[in-house]
């Protein structure tokens, strides 16, 4: 089973249009929705109108945009002027969170889950912006909060490309094992190029894309410098 999942639904108008176009052309199997972005409400309405409401998961976000909770917005170590710091995934990886930080992050995750449920979405799938759920401290919070989730994306250690340190790979591998023990998941997660260039890619995999609409074409913008037509990703040949 190969699943193409379009991240960042709700991020912007172009992303929302890309997700709708990708579903209309049967280019993706599901998407994951950000709760705190300017076009979140638009994305929810589009999912209803275009009949893919049941294929929307939660895209937990602690690295971009304005937090939903006041406590998180006031946390200077992870927010600036009321907006998440982009480097929060690195900060969490390198620092033990204080009680104040843990309380704020826990509350923000809880609020994003509750906001997701308030729209009527079933709590069955979770991934995250910049893979922050694969950091130990965040994952431990999710394990406590996300008991209703069935599927969770694996950590980046299962990617078949990219250079990461042995320590980081070991850390991610440990999280992978816990995710696989506690939730349904797939043995591979990464970009389309990483999958097709893998030495022995597994038959079951999740391929991440960032669908955007430009000039009536749906492109994968997983890398900001690339414009790859999503229609070129023929998963029937994988």
The quaternary state of the protein chains shown equals single chain
Main sheet: strands, sense, barrel: 7 strands, parallel
- Compressed to H and E, one letter per element, the order equals EHEHEHEEHHEHEHEHEEEE
Number of helices: 8
Would you report the number of β strands?
12
Choose one word for the global shape: globular
Helix content: 25-40%
* Low-pLDDT residue spans: 157-162
N- and C-termini, Cα separation: 10 Å
Mean pLDDT: 89
Q: Radius of gyration from the CA trace?
A: 17 Å
| Strand content bin | 15-25%
Class per helix and strand makeup:
alpha/beta
| Spatial strand arrangement across the major sheet | 7-6-3-2-1-9-8
Give a structural overview.
With 238 residues, this protein is of the alpha/beta class. Helix content is 36%, strand content 18%. It contains 8 helices and 12 strands. The chain has a 7-stranded parallel sheet. The chain has a 3-stranded antiparallel sheet with strand order 10-11-12. Strands 4-5 form a two-stranded antiparallel ribbon. Helix 5 (99-118) crosses helix 6. The relative contact order is 0.16. The model is unreliable at 157-162 (pLDDT under 50).
